[in-house]
Amino acid sequence: MSHSSGPHTELFNRLREGKLSPQDVEELISWLGQAKLDPEAAALILNQLQQSVDPGQVSPAVSAALEARLPLILHRQKHRGLLRSLQAHRIRYAAAILLLVGCCTYFLLNKQTQPVAGPQPFSHHTDLPPGKNGAILTLADGSKVVLDSLGNGVIATQNGAKVLLQNGQVAYSAPGREHSPSGAEGAPTADVTYNMMTTPKGRQFRLVLPDGTRVWLNAASSLRYPTLFAGTERKVEITGEAYFEVAQDAKMPFIVKVNETTEIQVLGTHFNVNSYNDEATINTTLLEGSVRIAYAGEKAVLEQGQQAQVNTQPSGIVAGQLSGGATGQSANGPIKIVRDVNVEKVVAWKNGVFDFEDASLEQVMRQLERWYDIEVVYEKNIPKLEFIGKMGRDLTLSNVLRGLELSKVHFRMEGERKLVILP
């Protein structure tokens, strides 16, 4: 590698100075993507990147941007050690790598046995933007309000409660309930009515329930809830994926009914529920507090950092669906407890990030289908690939597909929204 160290050192120098030409960027990425990156090359990368910027010059905002947008999509084979070394120095090379990301270009180490010819252009004549904030609110009378482009203000009145839209979030407000999360004091006496928030593919939204509970809805999801919590419990129903920060009220347990099959009972806690029909299990991940999962006569209590996987499929839990961590024992029943879960990965979607750590190609594609509102089909057998790394959810589809090309994923586009994965 000594014969090429000099030119690539110059490339890194130009990268650091912000003087890379488009040709330089492609050359640098192609070189980094070599299947046989020898130890001298690895040493050169680490040495140069450590010198790229003083850690003290990197602001927390820049560091956070790096974590969110650095798309290290890597096939998991022999170069994982180098990846870990690079990640250990991410603060030092944050500014340098962000230059690449700002050009919508990918910093990749390909792990196939065949060398990479370099990035191929996205040839389709259209591009799709990433998903955005938006939802459909179905009111008690069945009328629908599209929230995507509405301005701030009162958008409806439900059972005496004002429905407010403020900066991409819906909230409910009623006189006399400001100091009563459950709505017991001064609450309207009319029959309880229900609203439903629905996020199509390519949309996500936030809302504050009448008791003060905060909910984030991922794409292709729904939440049905009363416009007033009354009685002895607070019950809502979801499909898809949602993150909850539940307002505490010991007298009124908060219950989430999932896909008509599973119940989650809490008093006050933070947790994520993933219940998409195309996933093998309903996964409830606890970030804070305590929850109890009930399904088919079985119950399990989660502790912080654990995940309950409810298998609603007769064939059993599909291999590869675990989110990481050691698996707890729940006999051979439908609820399986996974300990020491990577909760940052689970809620990455809420924070504007795709986290593909340990993900299969199918898992990656299912996330892209929901966020970009596309259809993914496989021409023949599904390629057996695993990925590592993160990508910002603010990238256009063409940028994501460019990264997949560099990672040896072959595909073609048919029409505007059909992605065909090739062998």
Q: Mind explaining what this structure looks like?
A:
The chain has 2 domains: 1-119 and 356-423, Phage tail protein beta-alpha-beta fold, CATH 3.55.50.30; 132-345, Jelly Rolls. Helix 1 (2-16) packs across helix 2, helix 1 packs parallel to helix 3 (39-50) and helix 4 (60-69) packs across helix 6 (90-102). The chain has helices at residues 2-16, 22-32, 39-50, 60-69, 80-88, 90-102, 343-346, 361-372, 397-406; strands spanning 132-133, 136-138, 144-146, 153-158, 161-165, 169-173, 194-199, 203-208, 214-217, 221-226, 234-245, 254-258, 262-266, 270-275, 282-288, 291-295, 298-302, 307-310, 335-338, 353-355, 359-360, 375-378, 386-387, 390-392, 411-414, 418-421. The relative contact order is 0.11. The strands form 4 sheets. It has a 19-stranded mixed beta sheet that branches. It is an alpha+beta fold and 423 residues long.
Class per helix and strand makeup: alpha+beta
Mean pLDDT: 74
The largest sheet, given as strand count, sense and whether it forms a barrel, is: 19 strands, mixed
* Tertiary shape: globular
Helix content: 10-25%
User: What percentage of amino acids are in beta strands?
Assistant: 25-35%
CA distance, first residue to last residue = 33 Å
User: What's the architecture of the largest domain in CATH terms?
Assistant: Sandwich
Count of helical segments? 9
How many beta-strand segments?
26
How many domains, in number, for the residues? 2
Radius of gyration: 24 Å
CATH topological fold name of the largest domain = Jelly Rolls
What's the CATH class of the largest domain, please? Mainly Beta
